[in-house]
Amino acid sequence: MAFGQGSGYGGRPREMHKATCAECNKECEVPFKPSGDRPVYCKECFSKRKSEGR
Hints:
15% strand
C-alpha cells in the first residue's frame, strides 16, 4: 500500500475550487466549493485573521 499520494482523505486528491479572497481580492484555491453566503479568504489572510482572533 502506497502512502503519500494525494492530500485528501482516503488517498484521493482533494478537489480544489477557485475563489477570490474577500480581504485582498487575490485569486486562490480552496478545498471546498464556496457557497457565496460566507466570505472566503486566501491562506495568508486566513492565517492573519486567525492570529488576530477574529
